[in-house]
Design a protein that fits this description.
223 residues; alpha/beta; 15% strand
Length: 223
């Protein structure tokens, strides 16, 4: 394994990754601004979104260096190269592809591959993942995460997939290093980015951050 890239600072600081997935990417720059206004500064633009790399580049230009913008649903090294060329600051994958993880690690880019079993989690970590994405987290819930953490406490895990604002606290309590939240956070603001919808999105972002940071602080106090 090459040297392991560090976890994205904005993810480390907030413990939240917002997942920007849409059938129409035109509303995502406005969504990204609202999320940043609400305090969420780690944003994943999924490659399943039409024009994803152009959207990613525009968000980076709009929001500057204080916000980390990465590419999600990266399933090939070709996609990884294209995303990095477009300015992605981290990569997220739905599964464990050691070639994608290694490509990112060799360039010093954090990669967060999705895993479900202990073997997958350990394989992703050994390949150079900055942290491992438990996906889909909702299938086994916090109990599954807690069972994974018991033999693998040294591997930081990001709970993603069916995690909403209410559930985020439970995953943090179960040992998640961070959470990734998509549609339960956006609530359709990408499809209809009106001022009212974006204001409500920013408020949901603040609510989510408060829940996650409170849980993280309580866990650290107990340790």
């Amino acid at each position: 394994m090459t040297s392991r890239p560090a976890i994205t600072p904005q993810l480390l600081g907030t413990r939240v990754m917002a997942i920007l997935r849409s059938d129409d990417g035109s509303g995502l720059p406005a969504v990204a601004r609202a999320l940043a206004a609400g305090g969420i500064t780690c944003l994943e633009v999924t490659l399943t979104t039409p024009g994803a790399l152009d959207v990613l580049a525009r968000i980076r230009d709009d929001l500057g260096s204080g916000v980390a913008v990465g590419a999600g649903t990266v399933v090939t090294t070709g996609q990884a190269r294209d995303a990095l060329s477009a300015g992605a600051e981290f990569l997220v994958a739905p599964g464990v592809d050691t070639a994608v993880i290694g490509h990112a690690a060799q360039g010093g880019t954090p990669c967060y591959p999705g895993a479900w079993t202990p073997t997958e989690v350990a394989t992703a970590w050994q390949a150079g993942a900055a942290a491992v994405k438990l996906f889909p987290a909702c299938t086994g819930g916090p109990a599954h995460l807690r069972q994974l953490r018991a033999p693998l406490p040294h591997i930081p895990i990001v709970a993603v997939g069916g995690v909403g604002i209410t559930q985020a606290r439970f995953f943090m309590d179960a040992g998640a290093h961070a959470v990734g939240v998509g549609s339960p956070l956006l609530c359709g603001a990408d499809r209809d980015p009106t001022p009212d919808a974006l204001d409500r999105l920013a408020e949901r972002a603040r609510t989510l951050l408060e829940a996650v940071t409170t849980a993280a602080a309580e866990k650290e106090a107990d340790s």
